[in-house]
Amino acid sequence: xxxxxxxxxxxxxxxxxxxxxxxxxxxxxxxxxxxxxxxxxxxxxxxxxxxxxxxxxxxxxxxxxxxxxxxxxxxxxxxxxxxxxxxxxxxxxxxxxxxxxxxxxxxxxxxxxxxxxxxxxxxxxxx
Length: 127
Known about the structure:
- The protein is mostly beta strands.
- It has one domain.
- Helix content is 5%, strand content 31%.
- It has one helix spanning 118-123; strands at residues 5-9, 15-20, 26-29, 34-40, 46-50, 55-60, 63-65, 71-74.
- A hairpin with a 4-residue loop joins β5 (46-50) and β6 (55-60).
- InterPro entries: Bflower.
- Pfam families: Bflower.
- Residues 7-122 form the 4-fold beta flower domain.
- This is 4-fold beta flower domain-containing protein.
């Protein structure tokens, strides 16, 4: 992992996506597809937006959180058995950002992972 990237893992400990901090806080799939990005919110959290403008959720305390308050993936510290990540593919070009939706109110945070898988969560942000 590059020092300017944060790997995110699913509930089984598989690396699924990563945040390229020096690349506009872009969330890339392991295959190099730019799916979403982080934008600083009002309360020290980050909103997660797709390039299509959809508000997908939040990045709080090392976890991507959906609109129901469940974690969909997180840093290796937030999963029980993180696996060794394979090499990442080259990054694809980022699309232009669409006008972002207004974020909904932050839900009550659940202390568990939800049923939404991490890849589907961020892929909902593709144009």
